[in-house]
Amino acid sequence: MAEAFHLPGSVALVTGASSGIGASLAIALAGRGCHLVLVDRDAAGLSATVARAEASGATTASHAIDLTDAAAITALPAAVEARFGRLDLLVNNAGVALGGRFDETHLEDFEWVLDVNLRAVVRMCHAFLPMLTARPRAQIVNVSSLFGLIAPPGQSAYCTSKFGVRGFTESLRHEYAGTGLGVTVVHPGGVATGIARNARNPRLSDDPTLAEEQRLAAEQGRASFEKLLTLSPDRAAAEILRGIERRAPRIVVGKDARNAALIQRLLPAGYWRAILRLSGNRI
């Protein structure tokens, strides 16, 4: 079994830290005695997380940047080096969503999801690898999703990004096996965050009647999806933190995600029909 990851005194960077799982992880890491580098495009939400973390006694640095900005990511390691001199834990948590059928999706919106959910993860890992591998023990934690294990209809962009995070992370883990750098992929299930509420919708048709149908379908889809988001971010963060401390290669968060992952393994081609039957077609 891998030696436990020692959190107290470590320097941890968390993206998507203004709310949801990212904010809860930041506060939990602060409670473990970590120094924090917090990243999010939402400056106001980020400031609120910083205040909570510092109230717990954490030393923090914050960067309000958009992770679609490759130059901003490239500049981050120098800022972290100047502030803390090292990085021990990188948590790539930030994510966005896009609902709707693929044939209703503009490629610009599809690319936006890939930029935030996948390309930013790759860029962050590439930028910080020199700092992480310089440490005797370090950890990369990339947050995929339940939708990096199963692929429901209407989620083609999100699934593409999250399956990509899973594949990238697993390959990276195999490359660094036997070294001081551990690599973990996280698959949260239905966590009560704002990702569904803040998701982009497909762009509406120029036909007013069709546009209204698309709008209503998007609202119904969002409402149905939000009903599945039942696990609190704090509980999800606690599960993830336990996995980080164990240096677990994979962390599946929530009973719903664990059940769906099992069904997918048993029925790799027919899992979606089985999940629909078990849910009473409520999804």
Describe the 3D structure.
By secondary structure, this protein is of the alpha/beta class. It has a single domain, classed as NAD(P)-binding Rossmann-like Domain (Rossmann fold, 3-Layer(aba) Sandwich), CATH 3.40.50.720. The protein is 50% helix and 13% strand. The protein contains nine helices and seven strands, in the order E-H-E-H-E-H-E-H-E-H-E-H-H-E-H-H.
List the helices and strands and how they pair.
Blueprint: E1 11-15, H1 20-31, E2 35-40, H2 43-55, E3 60-64, H3 70-84, E4 89-92, H4 107-133, E5 138-143, H5 156-175, E6 181-188, H6 208-227, H7 233-246, E7 250-253, H8 255-266, H9 271-278
Parallel strand pairs: 1-2, 1-4, 2-3, 4-5, 5-6, 6-7
Helix pairs in contact: 1-2, 1-7, 3-4, 4-5, 8-9
3D shape: globular
Q: How helix-rich are the residues, as a percent range? A: 40-55%
Look at the structure and give the mean pLDDT.
90
Structural class estimated from helices and strands: alpha/beta
CATH superfamily: NAD(P)-binding Rossmann-like Domain
Low-pLDDT stretches? none
Strand content: 5-15%
User: What is the CA-CA span between the terminal residues?
Assistant: 38 Å
Query: Which strand order does the major sheet show?
Result: 3-2-1-4-5-6-7
Total DSSP helices = 9
